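Hey,
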Amino acid sequence: MKKILFISLVFMFLGCQRVKQRVKHYQSAVVGLDREVTLYAYDGSVIKSWSGKFNIETENGLCRFVKKDGGIVFISGTYIIEEK
């Protein structure tokens, strides 16, 4: 009986959305997530796009991330960050 209760609690705990978000946040901070960042011009045309596995920090409209080659990219304006 105790095993069934324990297994039920584990599945309930793992299914919790908050736990999933924390795991995703931890994964993002440690190894980065596979993402695509696209910077747009005022008319909606694409200026530049970056894709890869990186950690992104945003603050006050500024986006910062480190590329695979070690270069740091700072962008501001209209941009979209997509998780693949």
